[in-house]
Design goal:
InterPro entries: Tnp_DDE_dom. This is Transposase DDE domain-containing protein. Pfam families: DDE_Tnp_1_6. It comes from Dorea formicigenerans. The protein has 6 helices and 5 strands, in the order H-H-E-E-E-E-H-E-H-H-H. Helices cover 42% and strands 20% of the residues. It folds into 2 domains: 107 residues, no CATH class; 35 residues, no CATH class. The chain is of the alpha+beta class and 184 residues long. Strands 1-2-3-4-5 form a 5-stranded antiparallel β-sheet.
C-alpha cells in the first residue's frame, strides 16, 4: 500500500532520477533508458545478490558521460558539485521485483479491491467507535504487547458472543448483502 500512496504524489511523477520517469527504447534487442537530458543509459552488467535464501537479479544501467549535464544535482544521489564532477548516472533495476510491484498496483486499483477497502474502513470504524463509546473500553489495563493482545482478544470474543446471542434471540437479522446496489 505504501507504493500505491507514493505513486499518487507529484514528487513521484516529477523525480527525474528514477527509471520509471525515463523513456525506454529498444534498439537491436538491447533495451536502454533515455534520461531527462536526452542521454542514453545503456545496460552495463547483470548483478546477483543472495540474501536469506533468495536470489535477486539486478540489471545495471549507466550513462557513459554525464559531464556538462545541468540536471546532475536532481538526477544523481547525494551529488556534490565540488567532489563529484566526474560522477556518472548508474541505476540498478530488479525486473522481477518491478513486475510484482506492478501486479500489486493493478490489484489495488481493481474495482473489487476498492470496494473491499471502502467496506473495511467503514466497518472497522464503526466497531472501534462502538467499543469505545458503548462498552466504555478506553484504555488497556496492561502494558506488554502480549497482554494487550490477550485483553483485546477477550474483548473481541465477548463482543462476538454478545452478537451471537442477539442473533439467536432474533434481535439481529442475518445480513444478506447489497448485491443489487452499487457503491461509489
Amino acid at each position: 500500500m505504501q507504493d500505491h500512496e507514493k505513486r499518487k504524489t507529484r514528487a513521484y511523477a516529477e523525480d527525474i532520477s528514477k527509471y520509471y520517469n525515463m523513456k525506454v527504447e529498444v534498439f537491436e534487442d538491447e533495451q536502454f533508458y533515455i534520461c531527462h537530458d536526452g542521454r542514453e543509459l545503456r545496460h552495463i552488467r547483470t548483478e546477483t545478490k543472495e540474501q536469506n535464501g533468495y536470489t535477486q537479479t539486478f540489471e545495471v544501467y549507466g550513462c557513459a558521460d554525464c559531464s556538462g549535464c545541468e540536471h546532475k544535482a536532481r538526477c544523481l544521489y547525494k551529488y556534490n558539485a565540488e567532489k563529484d564532477t566526474e560522477k556518472n548516472k548508474i541505476m540498478k533495476i530488479n525486473e522481477q521485483w518491478e513486475e510484482l510491484r506492478e501486479k500489486s498496483h493493478a490489484n489495488i486499483q481493481s474495482e473489487r479491491v476498492i470496494l473491499k477497502r471502502q467496506t473495511r474502513s467503514i466497518q472497522t470504524e464503526g466497531h472501534f467507535g462502538d467499543i469505545k463509546e458503548n462498552e466504555n473500553f478506553r484504555r488497556f489495563n496492561y502494558r506488554s504487547a502480549d497482554k494487550v493482545y490477550k485483553e483485546f482478544m477477550l474483548s473481541a470474543i465477548g463482543r462476538n458472543i454478545n452478537k451471537y446471542c442477539r442473533f439467536l434471540n432474533e434481535k439481529l437479522k442475518k445480513f444478506e448483502g447489497k448485491a443489487t446496489k452499487k457503491t461509489a
